[in-house]
Amino acid sequence: MKSRKWVVISTAVCVLLGTSVIAFASNPIKLIINGNERYTETPPQIINGRVMVPLTTITEAFNKIVSYNANTKEVEIHEPKEKVISQLDNIEITGKESEDGIYENLQLITDQFSRKLDGYNVTNPTYAPEIISVDLNGDGKNEIAVILTTGYGTGVYISELRLREGDSGNEIKVEDALIAMKKQFTGAVTSKGIDMYINGHQTLLTNDKLNTEREHWFDEPFIGNIIHYHIENNILKASAAVQISPGEFIGELEIEYSYKNGIFQVGEATFSQDEE
């Protein structure tokens, strides 16, 4: 079992962490941090008339790092260190790991600039941010595309795109792919199967082409659990899987972007059916 340092709940601790911490006695003693109860491996205790709480519990709650030097008998509390989580040649992305299992405070760093990236990325190294340096708008200069993974799991993969000018780091606006697809796509469950309309064009998948029993189908086809940005032949694209049940995806929508008036705008979505 990892060792636990103890701290007396006091004004000094509140100042150190920059927020309020309240502990009160009951049976057992509860620890309340910013209005939320915090459960501890070792419960708070009253020692010599003072409420004692494991210091690690406090530091973890506020995304701090605590360490103890047995030789000098010093306890140190500090901010998590930034680390390089993805790299392409001279382009780096750094971030700080939070207790929620994500990298936040993302920074895009090159020899010319350092820019903050909005959002976060999961800490699983398999899904580290993808960096692509490519000319997407045809001006003869490479842009830097960063594809973040914000969620993954069984039947789930969510990515987000951040696009920057390669020489200055200035942000380039990109229309949201999922919002655009939802405007272009509608679908319904019918007696014949799944009836879909993409930009007014009908696609019918009959019952014999579907694997899941109807009793497990959603009320209507769904998009949003798998979103993937990618670049092919200097063209920015995005795809979204079409799902009719928790375990069955029937195909995907795909859109291509074009650069107009200083922004990457979505085109018309197309549907391709999964091969049986």
Give an overview in words:
- By secondary structure, the chain is mostly beta strands.
- It folds into three domains: 6-78, no CATH class; 83-174; 177-273, no CATH class.
- Helix content is 8%, strand content 53%.
- It has three helices and 25 strands.
- The chain has helices at 11-17, 55-61, 177-184, and strands at residues 6-8, 21-24, 30-33, 36-38, 45-47, 50-54, 65-69, 74-78, 83-88, 91-97, 102-109, 114-117, 121-122, 130-134, 143-153, 156-165, 173-174, 185-189, 193-198, 201-206, 222-232, 235-245, 248-260, 263-266, 270-273.
- The strands form six sheets. Strands 14, 15, 16, 17, 21, 22, 23, 24 and 25 form a nine-stranded mixed beta sheet that branches. Strands 9, 10, 11, 12 and 13 form a five-stranded antiparallel beta sheet that branches. A three-stranded antiparallel beta sheet has the order 1-6-5.
- The radius of gyration is 25 Å and the shape is flat.
- It comes from Paenibacillus antarcticus.
- Residues 33-87 form the Copper amine oxidase-like N-terminal domain.
- It holds the Pfam family Cu_amine_oxidN1.
